[in-house]
Amino acid sequence: MSSLLLSQLSNCSNPRNDKLKKELAKTVMSSSEENSSPELLRLLGSGVTVLSPFHLSQFSPNALKDILISLGSEVKWSLTQAKTLVVKVLQGKQELSGDELMSLGSAVRGVASSLLKNVKPKGLLDDERLNWMSQRMSIMQRKALLDGLHGDVNASELVQKVPASMLPSLSLSTLDEADLTSFDQLEGKQWTRAQAAFLVNKILGKMMTLTDMRKLGSAMQGISCQMIEKLAGSGVRVLAQTVTEASSWLSKTQACCTAQSLFSGLEKVRVGYFKNITITELEGIPTQLLVHLPDDKIASLPVSVCPVFLERMMEADLSSLPLSSSSRAALTDRALRCLGRNMSQLSSEEVLSLGPLLCELPPSQLSLLAPKILNSTMHALASCTQIPQRHWRLLFQLLNDTYGEPSDWTANMMESLGPLLLMNDSAVRSLRYKSWLKKALTDLMNSRTCPSSPPPPSEFSSCLDLSALRWKIFSLSTSDSVPLSAEVPARKKRAVVHQWVVAPSASLIEELGGANVHWSPAQFSMMDVATFTSAVETLGEVRDYSTEQLGVLREKALEAWGPVSGLNESQVIRLGCVSQGFNRTELPSLPLSSIDTLETLARCSWTQTQREAVWRCFVEHTNMTAGDLGAVELVGLDQFICGLDTEEIGQLHTAIFREAVQSIGQVQCPLAVTEHLKQLAVSVFGEPQGWSEAQVNSLGNIMAGLSLSEFRTLSPSALSFLSPTSIPLIPPNRLAALSAKQLEGLGLENAVMVTDEQKASLGEVQRAALGYAMGLNRAETAQKPSSNLPQSSGASVMGTLGVGVFLQPFLFLLLGCVL
């Protein structure tokens, strides 16, 4: 029965089923007479991941190979499991055929980079399975496989046949070698921004037409704002239409500068164009560009275009506007005035016609809504991905006044309004125990997806700080065994939960995942050795332990496995970020003889001193010098490249650096190290004044190492291709060396990354230029405060809009809250 249920659960992706799968797998194992028979693997199915690396090593190579082939991409192995499977199945092979690599399935993450370099290419690039398999590889593994394939396949064939997941790993040197010369060769490929800039320059040079632009596909990312401005001479409306046809590849910066070119061109057609714009003319402006209309132009739109304006706002995507942009308030202000009625008189349909602008309404306006309308509006707000942080405190107060304290909410209320709780950490932490609360909060956590790498700039991020929510789930999870009967008063219940001290168990650690960061050092100290060794890989995935927590976990590691000098590389991989707890005398003793192990540790939050110690440890164990490192090794070093000293950086081969520079550029090193890496870049690419847009983008954070005089030589076009993460790393006095024209050239996504300290070093003209890069009028030198939203103005346009405006899925969902 257990094996049957396990096989049925194998197709379920619900995270809450994972614990049940593991329990069923253990039941199947305990009822099996032979714990290392092929039959047991067949019975376990996708539940085979419950087996420890040691248990997996007891099966025959053929049995493991068969289960890997049958499972394919279905399961996710831990790194230690994957390495165990690879070692057992390959049995010491130093070369692999394409079929042998494919047979490893999702365990491919455990293949050493040195082995991937020696994969025989025959038929591999034509195998459709390579795409999903390479998605499970690390960046270094993909680089190693590409290097191996390139040894037997010419660059042109490699670029044409490489799967989408491996395309970003192709260096600009390989693209240059491939000698792509036509748009047909770009079709269907998803290029990185650096690759796109390189290809646009190589194929088109500085001469581009609107017809050319339509053929670019994802290479559209390589178009600079300067090129867009030049094309405006072909007709701004045609330009706007052409650009928005490629909207899926249009960056926020490109949308902003296209809008600026369009609006500037339209103002030349007729003085005061937007004050007397017609319905037909407004319909001709793509919504993606309309949201970038300057504040004064938005405010001056005539009442006659309100129906079209509201239609456009219903479908608008505000994610291209910085969260602090005054355009958000200006658009909201104009939309409310278009409705033409007091807030207290608005219907649900009218409020919901605001679309995403509903999320921008200040609490002072929301509080004027009729109670029934406020109810539906609050439910709609719970679906917002972005609510201005300046509204959080008063909006939460309005939520509390409307629905009472969150601790008194029902399960249904928590499900529908829960996202609004995330505006108040104290409210989340103080939620009282309910039998359904853990599930509700876990569902809320799982619904808040956020890209892990690279993180979006804060000005464009919809990601909230979920630490309070994670802590509450942790608190509820560790209090599950507390006997709380319905008869116990709430105050006593809280006291019992507060006083209850739970020692970490293996199952609880696995369930908590990233929330393990909330165990206190005292609780970690209560953990027995068996629990630690069983759950250490899960503990090792947490990157942000405190120094005190790491100290206790270090003691547990020494208690379990003895001194650091006696550890093996497999144990280091299992320890993961727990290794950060070892002191400066212990780190040099780590058995780091593989670049693959170093890459695994690179995901952790190492200090600069630790980086240097880990790098020295690797050098001593491998007898390698910096000059011995190849491109694959440089990629695998990741943040540990910051541990190289000046002499070692000078030993890196220029050709190797050129191949690996895009990965190196993603690392954030101390300024002194960055300056030395910049010097190496100069020896590779020449003086900065001649760097292309593609090279600037590839160099990433290394660009922060340019000197004051070098920054002055960069073209505005090149500056727009700076990596946003590099901007805050530039010393303020060096950023202040940029001219107004250069600051304008930064573009929207880079301009919003300028820190307050950097802004303070700029002059008035420079700040105005920076404002223009962020979408403000050239005359505006600072963001204008939001005007008070009017209670009434103009005539209602609801009758003109008609029912069709509201036939949107979003509206149907929200109207259900009213009915």
Number of strands: 0
Radius of gyration: 29 Å
Strand share of the residues?
Answer: under 5%
Q: State mean pLDDT (0 to 100 scale).
A: 87
Largest sheet: none
Low-confidence spans: pLDDT under 50, at least 5 residues?
A: 481-499, 779-819
| Class of secondary structure makeup | mainly alpha
Tell me, what's the shape? globular
First and last CA, distance: 45 Å
Q: Count the DSSP helices.
A: 52
Proportion of helical residues: 40-55%
Subunit organisation of the chains: single chain
Tell me about this structure:
Helix content is 53%, strand content 0%.
Fold blueprint:
Elements: H1 2-9, H2 17-31, H3 38-44, H4 53-56, H5 61-71, H6 79-90, H7 98-103, H8 113-116, H9 129-135, H10 139-150, H11 155-161, H12 172-178, H13 193-204, H14 210-214, H15 225-231, H16 236-245, H17 252-269, H18 279-283, H19 287-290, H20 295-299, H21 306-315, H22 326-339, H23 348-352, H24 363-366, H25 371-381, H26 392-403, H27 411-421, H28 425-429, H29 437-447, H30 467-477, H31 490-499, H32 506-512, H33 521-526, H34 529-539, H35 547-561, H36 569-575, H37 595-601, H38 608-622, H39 631-637, H40 646-651, H41 654-664, H42 671-685, H43 693-699, H44 708-712, H45 716-719, H46 732-735, H47 740-745, H48 748-751, H49 756-760, H50 764-773, H51 798-801, H52 809-815
Helix pairs in contact: 1-2, 5-6, 10-39, 11-12, 13-43, 16-17, 21-22, 27-29, 29-30, 32-34, 34-35, 37-39, 39-41, 41-42
